[in-house]
Amino acid sequence: MTTKSIALEQQPKKKSALKRFLRRWNSPIAGYLFLAPWIIGIFLLTFWPMAQSLYFSFTKYSLLESPEWVGIDNYKRIFTQDSTFVQSLKVTFLFVFISVPLKLTTALLVAIVLNKKLRGISLYRTMIYLPSLIGTSIAVSILWKQIFDGSGLFNQILGIFGIQGVNWITNPKTALGTLILLVVWQFGSSMVIFLAGLKQIPTELYEASSVDGAGKIRQFFKITVPMLSPVVLFNLVLQTINAFQTFTQAFVITKGGPINSTYMYALYLYDRAFARLQMGYASSLAWIMLVIIAIFTALIFASSRTWVFYESEGGK
Amino acid sequence: MNIQRIAKNKSWKNHLFLILASVFMMYPVFWWIGASLKTNEEMRNPNIFPEVPMWSNFTEGWKAIPNFTFTTFYLNTFYLIGLVVVFTLLSCSLAAFAFARLDFPLKGMWFAILLVTLMLPSQVTMVPQYVMFNSWNWVNTYLPFFVPHLLAGGISGSFCIFLMVQFIRGIPKDLDESAKMDGCSWFGIYWRIIIPLLKPALVSAGIYCFLWNWDDFLGHLIYINSVDKFTVGLALRMFVDTQSAMPWGQLLAMSLLSIVPSIIIFFLAQRHFVDGMTAGSVKG
After folding, report:
1. Is the model's pLDDT at B146 over the cut of 60?
2. pTM for the full model?
């Protein structure tokens, strides 16, 4: 009986040793076969275009003729003579620095209230999330254009309170504000991510701290904020990168105007490339954009060491 | 008793906050619905719904672009995005299976590259990709959308792979081990075991792929230039640009219709929505 069972045990062991040997070669081949479409894609659609883009950025290239090497001329022109570049950069920075913090704060505040056990919470969540669903679609840009028009909805509401509104979209002082309001209005996806993060904070932490006599505000800063900080980091990086690339809203609502007050960087890049067919110049702009986004992402990650709390490290 | 009253009082405040927030969020949407039934003159009235609804805004708007109806544009868009979603699910699940289940040299490097492409702004590759597709005569076809998604790229590729990798890692390995014992090949494990269990992640990825492509106005704008191939977004933009005296009611009616597919998907699959969105941030 015992010998039989030993024999039975050994047999699969032998087999699995053979299989393990096979698998050593089997798995790498299989791995690369499964990964083949993606790897081809990465080379064809990312690496090669990026190398080309870098090359184009040192050329004059109109798509109709072949690229002509001009050295660092494009970059020189961008940094010394191109006032539109400076303007678009200014507008984009303004947009990013106002819209991202505003969007994340709103998302966090609403998520905290939505995390409470209330009746009808899923209905509230749905209604608050819904505007974000239609995201960057052109439809929502058309709606916004109508709402902030001189005789649009926003001024009608102001009219009820006896305030005479301006035409928000054609006024260079307020046009960018309407775009910021649009992206802040769509805080839903950040909110859902915050909400998921809040749900993972163990309730014992709050219970224990209230036994110790901590108030709500103290709990918020001592428990909620640190426990949620990895999620804040994730949202911050995601939203910053997205905000730098804002295109459709500016393209449809304001067309970059009035007097370039909403001429976002992505829109400027698009115009150079596809309206004026200056592929070389546009590639230089694209690389500058990549470097700027990379710097900001790196800064956020570097600073995160001081404010993101990871449970596994046991705190700081 | 006292504590209960305080609790009630507090929840009342929360409800007030949430009701105000909901009104603020939904008011423009309700106004949109009302405005799509208004005449240009009525657009100036602050009331949400017009006295006489102009249903003709929808029928006239549907035919607003000369020689075409929105039927064409919707069929184009569904054809384009339908195939894109199928391609994405196929190619991304293959790559995700490799990352989650197979061991091969340089796996860590490839995965790091995947994470970087997740954050790479599309503007950097936009110009050279256009140059490349242009030289292959792919401009004004749907190939610049089909081929990248078939190669697990495009605007949602990296994200979908990442989402599926996270999900597959959660599937118990015992299942593949026992299948392997039974002589099942890697492809067999992928196709017979992982894919059926991956369904929730496939639904989430499919939803995001659909929504992002539906909203990928910039991509459509660059690559599609004849009206008979226009997507709904491009048609709307043409509607805005070609009409001198803007029939706002019709325009708002058509743009309202264009978000209906997204809304339907959202209500059919709310749970998958949240799963997909939080895959990267919390579980990861």
Report:
1. yes
2. 0.85
